[in-house]
């Protein structure tokens, strides 16, 4: 055993000595495995939700959306050029599920350790197809961040060889592009906070964030009630990660390793403190490019270290692969001009794309932090009256808080799209989210797709006679609440007044939108 441990240690030392200049075989392995996991989660979300969201009978049907885009731009061809997607050619419910399942299965192949350029190219295009068809449901920064990350990953791999450790080394220009991506993600997020909200600048943003974030997690209440001095320290740590550490991403080895570690540590804290979809897992991926094989050799199993060393010893240079990498780098450099100008602008946009393929985007998160949490709760009744004596039953979201004794769940990296959109909607009104009226209509008819977006159906036997939406203000109770409650709430008022299936105004509105014929 002692001899074996000595061999293990010597083997790792040999690899570390070989990594001057540094090599990135293990780095590529780690990037692609985590990317496969994120892709798999994204496609799994689509499998479960895309049909009730944008299917033929969904809340915002895709065929209506594609027609609107086509009419605005003049033709379906112009629509495809502006929003490339396979769904311009085939957009039935079967098409939505077929693309989602193919993407999910191919993602698992990448997770298993096998990837090449065509496979990653297919994954990139399929997921981009969903994002471009997904409307508001896919209008989040991490969706275009995944398409940009997925595009870069295509050029990490050989054209055909799918082995985890092929004979072609990862092209160094692509490694640098991953560092450029994490630089823009972090600095963009830092600048949008610096410009966006005084409570970031005065260090009090975390007094509110953990309670008011879209979907709190099991530890969010614990974070919320930390001593305020610690919450202020958290804001300063955020500034360190987003506005200081990124400048060391292009420094020599030690500076890169420290910067990458600090950035990943922030992502881990965010994973523990809330449910931000797969954003934080995805953000870790380009940060992995800060580390070389000498770093990974200290952490990964010896079997992987040995395979990386064998691949490095037998490496063959591919001039077409290297040339392609430099061409991609040149394209990314040109496309980066607008995102950089946006970051420098006092009118900085958050999470925006500047090209049809979403190749180089601008990012940012929580530029402003709400200081109170509002929730919209849909309720139904089978009573003849909507007055004070009516028995209203709530529709329980899968993850947004409704019941006061409901412990916030751990759902990320999975994302419940309805819950996220209702978090945004609660800060506005139904006229800004007209699909909520289509949701009300579907609840009035016990539509299976709409019901599947909730945790359950309070009216399993027959549809409710009336539906309304109430606006509440929610606050965390202190840990150890004697009643075992996690939340307390107060009613603010009607968000949507009670309506029935024969409400003429509702029917007219839905017919005008093309949602009811």
Overview of the molecule:
With 517 residues, this protein is an alpha+beta fold. The protein is 53% helix and 8% strand. The protein has helices spanning 2-18, 25-54, 62-73, 76-82, 93-111, 117-133, 141-154, 172-196, 198-201, 209-212, 220-224, 228-244, 253-273, 279-287, 293-296, 302-313, 319-335, 337-344, 417-425, 435-444, 448-452, 504-513; strands spanning 352-353, 361-362, 373-381, 393-394, 466-476, 487-499. Strand 1 and strand 2 form a beta hairpin. Helix 2 (25-54) runs parallel beside helix 6 (117-133), helix 2 (25-54) packs antiparallel against helix 14 and helix 8 packs across helix 12. It starts with a helix and ends with a helix. The model has no long low-confidence stretch (mean pLDDT 93).
Short recap of the structure:
With 517 residues, the chain is α+β, with helices and mostly antiparallel strands. It is built from 22 helices and 6 strands.
* Low-pLDDT regions: none
Helix share, percent: 40-55%
Strand content: 5-15%
The largest sheet has its strands arranged as 4-3-5-6
Structural class: alpha+beta
Approximate shape: globular
Strand element count = 6
Tally of helical segments: 22
Measured distance between first and last alpha carbons: 75 Å
Mean pLDDT: 93
Largest sheet: 4 strands, antiparallel
Radius of gyration over all CA atoms, rounded: 25 Å
H/E element sequence: HHHHHHHHHHHHHHHHHHEEEEHHHEEH
